[in-house]
Amino acid sequence: MEYPEPCESLLDFIIRNPQLDETTARVIMRQAVLAVQHCIEHDVFHNDVHAHNFLLKKDTLELKLIDFGSGQLISSDGYDSDIYIGILDYCPPEVFTEPRFHAVPANVWALGVLLYEMVNACPPFHNPTEIKEAKVTFQNTNLSNECSDLISQCLTLDPTKRPTVEQILQHRWIRNDLL
């Protein structure tokens, strides 16, 4: 798909700028979280949040969530794990271990993968076994404790212990330049 100038996918931006500095990553991440929050508030589960599904305006770092082809209405009952349709790198562990998964924890997991990928220049997990173990090993040894903490919270194995989207927005790392 061609993107209008001066835009590109967030994935292309990450590839061109490996291991983003935390200030840039924070600007992008805050917008990604707000986009997901907007969807949830309108009872929409995007169901395919990942770096290729964000459009980034290169000159302003303005971010837009795109490609709602996998989207569904939010269901309080959750979704059958055997029909998960997102990409593997962003798939939450409960899809492999539980019969059902839920929109908010799945989105939070995907946001954690996104942030990890931005600041480490690679995905945190490479196969279902690694995803099911959810052991986060940081490649970038220069990350702040706050950034590492947010990623670790989002990539918590137990979906009921992951933060909500609102809690992510209140996290010290996200709010850092607002304080």
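[next item in queue]
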Amino acid sequence: MQKRIDWIDVSKGVGIILVVLGHTPTPDWLKTFIFAFHMPLFFFLSGLVYYDGNMTFTSFLFKKIKTLLLPYFIFSVLAYLFWVLVERHFTFTGSSDVDPVVPFKGIFYSMPDDYMLTHNPALWFLTCLFVVEMLFFIMKRWGRGRLFIVIAVMVTAVLGYLNDQYVGIKLPWNIEVALTAIVFYSAGFLLKNNLKEMRDRRTLLLTLLLFIAVGCLQTLNVRVDMRANEYGNMAIFYITSFLGTAGVIFSSFKL
């Protein structure tokens, strides 16, 4: 069994707190700040702990079905049943007029559009992460080292950009979001050893500066919504995402 890494667990904890804050009655500026990087942070952290153990594609596929898709379908079905039987009967939830067939289809499509994930919107991350991890496995296993991964990720990033800016295709399991998310996942994998070396450096002042930079830059962009594949200015999105992710990780070194 692999030993857990404390600062990665702390980073996940900080990320969960940010997610909760981002979905509670908080000021718009705070939500805009949080949304600038909180989902890229989770994809980055997932890349940090990537491990395939020289498994075959089939073995890796079944592992991810067990650890990602099985929990997704279990929680999605349970949440749907609760929504159908209880939640949708209360008008204050804002979903009383939704046709029950729509979120039922959403269990299988896992798309946030058209009320498909009314019963539990947060579950989109699991299917998207599944797509990202399968894509990354193929890149890593069938490519030729780190350079191939970087080139392949740049290609997917361009495809994600073109779709966001010009095409706007919405695909099941948030495949179009995965084209952007894999950038952060791959960065986490490639920078793993570099972050280990920075573990004992003084990072608190740097953390503060990183978060200030995120706040300043985000004022030049729209509020990001990765689940909906809405990024505004992609250059600002990538910069604030990496700056915010670095801020959380550096702070976690000290927490």
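[queue empty]
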